[in-house]
Specification:
Length: 140
Amino acid sequence: MSPNRSALIAIAIAVVVGTCACTDAPSTVVPAGAATTAYPGAPAPLPSGLADPFAGYATVVNGRLAIVLSGSSSCPPHADSADLATMTFGFSADTEGPCTADMAPTTFEFNLPSTENLPTFITINFTAGDTSSSQLPLLR
């Protein structure tokens, strides 16, 4: 066998193995971190006024603030911090290793002293290499 053909076979095997590593079944365990609870999926029923469920949003579920973020189901985000006074929440994502390229929702629930007088938007600081900040709507 020629050296070029051996190299091509080795590359093909590496691509197949790499592709298989990215298609593992999504994990059903999401670390809660700063959240009270965390789980794959979105709470039901979806809130009214939700135009795009993959864009991220916040809602109230059973007296808790639920923040729903979309991303890789095999590398879900982590809740790093929660400032209930300013309604600012920090999340990060592990971008090392194989992650699926799907857009799966992950829900993080936070205990609130009260669900009255909540703002229209909450602030999310998301770190995945760089840090970005965005406003998520609080839907009911």
